Structures are given as C-alpha cells and as structure tokens.
Amino acid sequence: MTPPFRVDLIVGARPNFVKIAPIVRALRAKGTFAPRLIHTGQHYDFLMDRVFFEELRIPAPDVNLKIGSGPASEQVAKIMLALHPLFVEDRPHLLVVVGDVNSTVAAALTASCLRIPIAHVEAGLRSFDREMPEELNRLVVDQLSDLHFVTEKEGQANLIAERVAPERIKFVGNVMIDTAYDALERAVPAPDTFATLGASAAFRERAANGFGFATLHRPSNVDDPVKLKGLIQALAKVSEKLPLVFAVHPRTRGNIEKAGLAETLKAPGLLACEPLAYLASLGLMRDAKVVVTDSGGMQEETTALGVPCITVRDNTERPITIEEGTNTLIGADPARIGPIVDDILRTGGKRGRKPALWDGKAAERIAVEAEAFLRGRG
Length: 378
Ligand code: UD1
What we know:
This protein has 17 helices and 13 strands.
C-alpha cells in the first residue's frame, strides 16, 4: 500500500478528545496520512465536548454523527448505522479507536463487519470487572483489533493471555500523558479557577494553604442514591479540613437532582461546579494536595504529575498507577476517604515515579507503527 494512507479517527466522549489530540498532530506531521476525524456526538455539551477541541487545538471534526445520549445498546446501534455508509462510501485503510467508551466499541464493530483494519489505542487494560460497561467494551474492541497500542506492560500480558498475537502488540506509551505534558504550561493556575468559579473569599483564603480536587461519575458510584449520598457526605466532611473543588459530571448532577441531594452539596468548604474545561482541570490536578476520583484518566494524569490520588473503586484497569505511581485504591466505602486524606496531609502521600514511555511521545510512536503496518499490507 502506498501513501497517502486514509485513516479514520473516532471520537465521541470527553476522554477520547484528550487522547486523540496528539494522534491527529502526529499523523499530520508525518505527511503520509490523510486523516478523517469522525465525532459520534456521544458527548455534546460545550464543557464535555467543544471546549476540548478549542483548548487542545484539535481540528474541527470532518463529520459529526450527533448521536447524543441514550441507553448503551441504542447508542451503539445508532452509531453503527450512521458509520456504515461513511465507511462504505469512503473506505479508510485503517480505523483508529481510542479508549473504552461506547463510541469506541460501536466504531470497531462497524469496521470489523466491513473488514477494515482496526488499531486500538490504550489496548489491553483490564479491570476484570464485567459490571463495568467499559470493561466489556475493552474486551470486544481488543478481540476485533489488528493493532494494539499499549500504555503499560500489564496491557501486553493481558492481551497475550487473551491470545492476541504478540507481533500485533506495540508498547508505545500513553497519549493522554502526551496531552498533559503538552498542555502543562498552559494549565490554569488554581486561584484563577477559584475566581472564575465564584468561590467565596473564605474558600479562597483557606484553599491558598492547600486544597483537594474531586470528581465522581462511574455508574457504580453515582447511580445508586444511597451510595451517592454517602460519598457526597464524605466529601463534605473532608472539606471541613481541606477545601475541596468537586467538578460534577452531568450523570452525577442528574442523579443528585433525582435523589434530592442538592442540599448535601452545600458545605462551606465544598466548591461544587460544572464539569471543568481541560486546562482548568489540569491546573487543579497539578496544584492539589490530593485528588479524589473514580476516573481512569485522572488516575494516570495524577501519576504523571506526581500528585497523590485516591481512587474510589474496588479495582483499576491501570495497575501501574498503583505499583509505580501515586494512586491508592480504597474501594467504594465512603468512610475510608477521610482517614486516607488525613494520612496524605500528614505524610505528603505517595510520590511515585513516571511509568516507562510516559514521555510525551506516544503519539509519534503510534504514527510510525501505523505507517509500518499499512506499508506492510501493500
Ligand atoms: C462516558 C463513558 C465513560 C467515560 C465518561 C467520561 C461509556 C460507556 N461511558 O460515560 O467511560 O468515563 O463518558 O465523561 O461510554 N450527558 C450530558 N451532556 C453530555 C453528555 C452526557 O448531559 O454532553 C448526560 C446525559 O444525561 C447522559 C449521561 O450524561 O445520559 C451519561 O452520558 P453517557 O455518554 O451515556 O455516559 P457517561 O457517564 O458520560
């Protein structure tokens, strides 16, 4: 096969945008690819979508399928129906999918029906928890993929255990960390974000001596009103000692409203706000004493930044953040958050080290491997 190589890149949900930014740049820089960026529309609010394109300088999508929210099977089916004609009319040489969201699996299924080769970025991660929708997506996408780009060694081992041929697995590093390093200088300092969010003078004064940053959006934490209430109460309690910014995801916001928990959010030390744009979020992560989250990406970003992270989950598909990084898994019991925060405030928490190949150059390696793969198919 000879250049230009037509490559379709799929994005749909917030973490996809962060991962695709350096890949688009690296493919364009090579000069041998003709990339087409396809947005499924899984996420669509300004703060969940467009702001990432602006801040990360991602070119506007060539196509937006505008699928929107809905039950997983409906979302996947709608994306497949919309993608199929695009792939047939203008067949790519390669499909690149990132991460584990519904848009990722929908695109991989559609391409595999048409025998279009698939490259999966962030392959091989496993939580071994099939209650997690993302785990099912990861398993399916990796079975369908031809090229597996891996962020950590454990990913390689998981793929080999699932009988993926070793020559298809490429350990390239972490594109989410490419983006974090690229944007770090532009990250918004925490005090500026407090001002933008309209934090009280009392909050700002206390936060000048240290603050925490919290996010929660996993269905396992936020869909059950009793669990959600316990978690918010635990954050409110922590905020008596350490002021906390709590960026509330739309899924979480919806559940807070349904369960009548808005009052629980109103602790003086808790600054509950809309989802944050990328540069504000990166700035808070960098400057925080501790991050409390159930996000996959933030476990990695805090490890790259050397900031202690408490993950409110029973498991993680990103074990390197625990073994080498700054992450601590505490399960979903809200009672554990307070004591661990105390411990981190006393000791400074885990320092960690940067995992291998988390060096800001993962996307460049992906471009090299993708080109070699396509030339090899000629
Ligand atoms: C999805 C991903 C998850 C990822 C997360 C990041 C799957 C299975 N899950 O979860 O892995 O960590 O994105 O945010 O793909 N909504 C809005 N505005 C938006 C988008 C969503 O209000 O722009 C609301 C809708 O009410 C929607 C709900 O959030 O029903 C959930 O959105 P959805 O994309 O289904 O899942 P997430 O929880 O965002």
